[in-house]
Amino acid sequence: MNLEITPKAASFYKQEMDLQKGDTLRLYVRVGGVGSGGFSVGIMRDDDPSASAYVLERESITFFVTEDDFWYLDEMMIDYDEDLDMVVFNQPRFDDLHHPLAKQENEAKRSRS
Question: What pTM value is reported for the model?
Answer without folding.
Answer: 0.82
